[in-house]
Each structure stands twice: as structure tokens, then as C-alpha cells.
Write a structure and sequence with these properties.
By secondary structure, the chain is of the alpha+beta class. The protein has 2 domains: 41 residues, Arc Repressor Mutant, subunit A, CATH 1.10.10.10; 81 residues, Lrp/AsnC effector binding domain/regulation of amino acid metabolism (RAM) domain (Alpha-Beta Plaits, 2-Layer Sandwich), CATH 3.30.70. The protein contains 5 helices and 4 strands, in the order H-H-H-E-H-E-E-H-E. Strands 2-3-1-4 form a 4-stranded antiparallel β-sheet. Helix 2 crosses helix 3. It is elongated. The chain starts with a helix and ends in a 10-residue tail after the last strand.
Length: 147
């Protein structure tokens, strides 16, 4: 990636629906040269897709919490079972296997505190090998580049 590719990636990250003509104007390339570069960024795996950016609050999921999860069993089987459970939980928007004193960091989006408590108790609390949970409730997000 050179400096021009970096500009293309930044513009597309801001607005993935920008037309090729507008993108070319912003970058300072001809439309055909810009399109070739975008296609190469896609082919090489730098750009892996385009998606809609959703507003969780507008979808009834305005309560956000990050949760660290510790497992009592560190086997591959226990980790796979936990990851499969999180893959099937619509409240869990992100699941990251991390280093440190806990095994996982989750981003949970639900309607309100009562819905979070239900997820905490009925989903996380019902899983084998989960032995430690710490919740961090998001009060505001002054910077969130996913939005």
C-alpha cells in the first residue's frame, strides 16, 4: 500500500457508498485509475467488504456493555463451546479471545439494564466453565470509528 491507497482506504472507511467518480475526485486520480486501485485493494484482501453502519439505539439496542469472561477450564473444547454459544447469541455483537487474567472480551448490545441482566444471568450464567464475569457499562462513546 502506498500513500494513494491509504487515502482511498480512509475515504472508503468514512463512506463505503461513495461513487467511484467522487472518490477519484477526492483522491486526485482519474476514475479509471481509482477503480483499478480499489479493485486491487479488494483482490489483495485489504478491503474485505462493504456494510451498512447501524444505529443500535434506533434498533432498540441502546444499552452497551463490555464484559470480560474468565473460564474455569482452559481446554480447547471449553473455548470452542463458549465461542459457539456467543456466535449464537444475538446480544453479543463482538467476541474477542484476549490475553491477561480473562479469556474473552465481549461487546453486548441490548435494550436496557433489565435485558442486560437477563443476558448476564440466563446466557452467560448458564454456560459451563464460565467462572468470572466483569461488566463495564458504556456511558458514552466520544470516539467510535465503527459508527
Amino acid at each position: 500500500m502506498d500513500q494513494i491507497d491509504g487515502k482511498i482506504v480512509r475515504e472508503l472507511a468514512r463512506d463505503g457508498r461513495i461513487s467511484n467518480t467522487e472518490l477519484a475526485d477526492r483522491i486526485g486520480l482519474s476514475p479509471s485509475a481509482c477503480l483499478r486501485r480499489v479493485q486491487e485493494l479488494e483482490r489483495s484482501g485489504v478491503i474485505t467488504g462493504y456494510r451498512a453502519v447501524l444505529n443500535p439505539a434506533a434498533m432498540g439496542r441502546g444499552f452497551v456493555a463490555y464484559v470480560t469472561v474468565g473460564l474455569s477450564d482452559h481446554s480447547k473444547r471449553a473455548q470452542q463451546a463458549f465461542e459457539q454459544a456467543m456466535a449464537g447469541a444475538p446480544q453479543c455483537r463482538e467476541c474477542h479471545n484476549i490475553t491477561g487474567t480473562r479469556e474473552y472480551l465481549l461487546r453486548i448490545e441490548v435494550a436496557d439494564l433489565a435485558a442486560y441482566k437477563a443476558f448476564h444471568t440466563d446466557v452467560l450464567g448458564a454456560l459451563d466453565h464460565v467462572n468470572a464475569l466483569t461488566s463495564y457499562i458504556v456511558m458514552g462513546s466520544p470516539k467510535d470509528e465503527r459508527r
